[in-house]
Amino acid sequence: MPSPHERLMRRGGSWMWCVKTVKWFPVIFIVSVILWSYYAYVIQLCFCKCTKLCCSPSDASQYARLSTNLKAFVTVVSNIQRVVYIILYHTFLFFFLWSYFQTIFTPIGKVPSQFRLPASELDRLMQAESDEAKIHVVKRFAQNLPVSNRTASGAVRFCEICQHVKPDRAHHCSVCGDCVLKMDHHCPWVNNCVSFTNYKFFTLFLGYAFSYCMFIALTTLQFFIKFWKGELDGMTHFHILLLFFVSIMFALSLVSLFGYHLYLVMHNRTTLESFRPPVFPIGPDKNGFSLGRFNNFQEVFGDNKNLWLLPLYSSLGDGVVFPVRAQHQSNLYNSMGSTHNRSDEFKVVPLVPPQPLQDSVVQVV
Fold first, then answer.
1. What stretch of H or E contains 180?
2. Catalytic: 179?
3. Does the structure show a pLDDT above 70 at 239?
4. How buried is residue 323: exposed, middle or buried, by Cβ count under 10 Å (0-12/13-18/19+)?
5. Which of 159, 176, 187, 193 is catalytic?
6. Which residue blocks in the chain are alpha helix, DSSP H?
């Protein structure tokens, strides 16, 4: 069954496709900045060569004067330094782009069909005459579903747009037009929801983007100092000097964002949950999903240390069922080892799209 967003796209026609195209503008801007930074660093800084001196070394005075003036046009002189810069630059760039495009093109985790109200239950919901009757219909349908989160009033969470019960930590994204598993936020700079399926990639993207900017800033700092002292021609090295300021600007914004998301990872929270704590049957608890810092880290980055720094999927779980702290556990959770579904027939979205649906057994560390 198509999602509400897909149905809207079909009805909207060309207008909706225009809106969809506009959403890519922030990504195009970021890619354009990266391409310009590549030109400024690799071409202007590492490969731009000066013309040879047009006089004989025998003319000592003229040769010395031209040699002094030529220093204003020289960037990286040493071949060894140039090779080191190029290798390190392309290494940072590779991991930066890899994690960035993984964040962009990884599909969001969608709610399994088992959470959608069947036609008979939906008719009862529409015919309910009071809010209490509607809550009772949803609660009865959700009694065999693995959900522990509630609304502020204590009711089972239900999306009226998608017409299904919301799994724990899932939220409806108005931009994507669908409910998203473990939604953190919708990021226009990646034109995608940061959620269960790509949260590791997003965190690595922030880290590698910060490293990329800091590497550029540190290796171009010497040329800014020379420019400040009047030893470097500003117009000739305009791209390099501008690259220094742009890298510093992006690094300052990225370091705070990267640090904040590392904090969220260590506390097993999403951005939405940091502003509005998840509500459990016994009440709201901002640490309801926290299992300890190392376990929280492994839930996002996995238990294979070799994959922690690689933009490859290694997160634990299925995005539908999450282990919770002891006070929120029911017979759904086995705190000693694994998390099992109540129903053997219940199936979840795959860990790595687009693998086939599998019976959910979520490993908990």
1. strand 178-180
2. no
3. yes
4. buried
5. 187
6. 4-12, 14-22, 25-38, 60-70, 79-105, 119-127, 131-141, 199-228, 238-267, 271-275, 293-301
